[in-house]
Write a structure and sequence with these properties.
alpha+beta; Peptide Deformylase; 5-stranded antiparallel sheet; 5 strands
Amino acid sequence: MIRPICRDVLFLSQKSEPAAEADKNVIQDLLDTLKANEAGCVGLAANMIGVKKRIIVVSMGFGNVAMINPLIVKRSGPFETEEGCLSLIGTRKTTRYTDIEVEFQDSDWKKQKQKYSGWIAQIIQHEIDHCDGIII
């Protein structure tokens, strides 16, 4: 189901809780909402649709991928950039990393550990920040 985008900064600034298999419907809602907003959006976190769970979806070019309970375990190559957000008006400066390694569960709840770089790494960092209550 396509969900409305949350713009409540107080809600968005709260840390998300770990996701469990009972939250599986949130994954589909995130994927549907990302698809509906693909003209101006490349990733979403569950709190952006009003659900305080550690679930993100990211446009990887070949398709949209869900990451459940994502955690960045390595990062290198810091750089300064400016980002926008579907939940906020305008752009803001932030520090990101060129290369990251992320531990997460996939949509089948299997543990994964993947390395990402460049644009995809930047999107993942932005969405994990949402899970941590960090607003750019």
